[in-house]
Design brief:
With about 550 residues, this protein is α/β, with parallel strands linked by helices. The chain has a domain of about 110 residues: 2-Layer Sandwich (GMP Synthetase, Chain A, domain 3). The strands form six sheets. It has a nine-stranded mixed β-sheet with strand order 2-1-11-10-12-13-14-15-16. A five-stranded parallel β-sheet has the order 4-3-5-6-7. Strands 17, 18, 20, 21 and 22 form a five-stranded antiparallel β-sheet that branches. α3 packs across α4, α11 packs across α12 and α12 crosses α13. It starts with 7 loop residues before the first helix and ends with a strand.
């Protein structure tokens, strides 16, 4: 390829130096003594220099364990200082950091261990029982398993090592990389759920991490003067990349750690620590609003609250703006692509209910849905806020357009530079998109994606069940709650038995278990034998209204 100039130095410098860890290290030099991280539970803070030294100690420990470029370092823990160390340290030696959901069941965790085969696995003391079961179930055995337990509340299992002992005596200086870095190197690996509800690995490269940080810096906007607190867990894209460690540390700001969401504590922290940006889902904002009305605190430090994971209803938005801050933001996107549409304060409350329009570097379209084929990216529905189509996303800066070890899933989701989300929506002449449903009937509860198919398959394994359909009903706290409609194979089957069965199943995380049940004589099917989830959804809404659903 010919250029009109000598591109040699630009290409070499850009491809090897434009990495996330280099951006963080610039801030270590610029803001050495500035606070980067604070944990209210420990009453402990880390400056940029101190944070870097901790990451270096962990990086050297990983090197001592034989971790090298492209090895996976996996960690399963709530928001914590060690989470941040595990995010930064692998990047220093060219390894892949991979945070996973600490709410998963043992079977789901085992599947991820076997899928990514981490060299070293870190876990929090809070989930030790689940992790021990997962490690026993997994075929892959990490060469080192590290318990994160700063207050030493838990007995150390045989063969495991405490975090403090793992990094003890390790150097604090920068480790020497054995292989040069590249912007296309996989940097971060996240896990989402596939169409069957089983985990899928999402590979993110250095460009994705850096430009996801840029996207937040641009849209908030975020600066070194800001102090962020994410109310949701960091293990998912909205937690890590939206006001979490990724953009905040890249911008030179400060991350305040919220280990577990509690609305009263959260508001107290905002006032006490001068939080400028708060991040969480609409149900969290509803709880904050209720507490603020009863026990108000000074929220004048807030520059904005960023929400995602669910539509922002107009009346709720007005309440949030009146009680919390006038600067409410709402984003829509996926694990694979980060956020791709955005509602800014000047869009609200008028455009509340919509998902907004595309972010600065992205393109979002709504294309026609065909029963036998995928629509081309330019085969769009009318921009009349009436014709329903599938929402597709083009964001080359924030996705690698692939799943780990799943070529068929990759081919199904990504096409012509777009991700086909499976979400159904409408849009208007100004490109504001509104979500109206899901092609695969996915449920979103407390910010977690839940696929009915997985739960149906598990319930159908129970010998007293003939068949079932899983759907959802609105839940003020969670957004949606899971409902199971069950046809008995044995008339003696009770809801109590189903609850016990689901609670003990190794492949069903607690947040995926049905919260409501109803026994029925038959289920609705199409002429071709497919379950009519939309019909069951309508039935569930009516049954909820009439009090016919049995609660657990």
């Amino acid at each position: 390829m010919g250029y009109t100039y000598d591109a040699t130095m630009f290409q070499k410098t850009f491809e090897s130096d434009f990495t996330y860890i280099n951006g963080f290290l610039r801030n270590v030099r610029r803001f050495s003594g500035k606070r980067a991280l604070y944990c209210p539970l420990r009453e402990q803070s880390w400056t940029y220099d101190q944070l870097n030294r901790e990451a270096n100690r962990l990086a050297h420990a990983l090197l001592s364990d034989g971790v090298r470029k492209n090895d996976v370092v996996m960690y399963q823990m709530p928001n914590s200082a060690e989470f941040v160390f595990c995010y930064l340290a692998p990047q220093k030696i060219g390894a892949i950091n991979s945070p996973i959901n600490f709410r998963l069941s043992p079977g789901e965790t085992a599947l991820i261990l076997d899928d990514s085969k981490p060299a070293v696995f870190f876990y929090d003391e809070e989930i030790q029982d689940m992790v021990l079961k997962a490690l026993a179930m997994a075929e892959h055995k990490p060469r080192q398993v590290v318990l994160v337990d700063p207050f030493q509340k838990t007995t150390l299992p045989d063969g495991h090592v405490r975090y403090e002992d793992y990094v003890a005596g390790q150097p604090e200086q920068e480790p020497v990389r054995e292989a040069p870095g590249h912007i296309y190197d996989e940097n971060t690996r996240l896990y989402t759920s596939g169409t069957t509800g089983l985990p899928k690995g999402v590979a993110l490269n250095n460009i994705n991490d850096v430009l996801s940080a840029h996207d937040v810096i641009m849209h908030f906007p975020l600066s070194p003067l800001d102090r962020t607190m994410n109310m949701s867990p960091w293990f998912h894209r909205g937690g890590l990349h939206s006001g979490g460690p990724t953009p905040t540390l890249y911008a030179g700001g400060e991350v305040v750690i919220l280990r577990q969401f509690n609305p009263r504590v959260c508001l107290k922290y905002v006032e006490q620590y001068g939080i400028t940006f708060l991040i969480g889902g609409p149900p969290m904002l509803k709880m904050l609003t209720d507490i603020q009305k009863k026990h108000p605190v000074d929220l004048s430090c807030l520059k904005g609250i960023v929400t995602m994971g669910a539509p922002l209803e107009k009346e709720a938005c007005i309440q949030f703006q009146q009680v919390l801050t006038p600067n409410i933001y709402n984003g829509y996107g996926t694990t694979e692509t980060f956020w791709n549409t955005f509602l800014r304060p000047y869009d609200l409350p008028d455009m509340a209910g919509s998902a907004g329009r595309s972010c600065t570097d992205d393109e979002v379209s709504v294309v026609k849905v065909y029963p036998d084929r995928r629509a081309e990216p330019d085969d769009c529905v009318a921009q009349d806020n009436a014709e329903v189509g599938e929402i597709i996303l083009k964001c080359p800066t924030k996705t690698t357009y692939c799943y780990i070890n799943k070529p068929e899933e990759t081919s199904r989701a990504f096409y012509q530079g777009y991700m086909y989300t499976g979400d159904l929506g409408i849009w208007d002449e100004n490109h504001f998109v509104t979500i109206v449903g899901r092609k695969d009937d996915m449920i979103v509860s407390s910010g977690e994606n839940i696929h009915p198919v997985q739960i149906e398959e598990i319930i159908n394994e129970f010998d007293k069940v003939k068949e079932c359909v899983v759907t959802s009903v609105p839940d003020q706290l969670r957004g949606e709650s899971v409902v199971a409609y069950v046809v008995r194979a044995d008339d003696s089957l009770t809801v109590k038995e189903l609850v016990a069965y689901c609670s003990n199943h190794p492949m069903l995380a607690a947040y995926k278990r049905p919260r409501f049940y109803r026994f029925v004589d038959e289920l609705p099917y199409t002429a071709t034998g497919k379950k009519k989830h939309f019909a069951v959804k309508e039935m569930a809404l009516e049954d909820q209204k009439n009090g016919l659903l049995e609660r657990i």
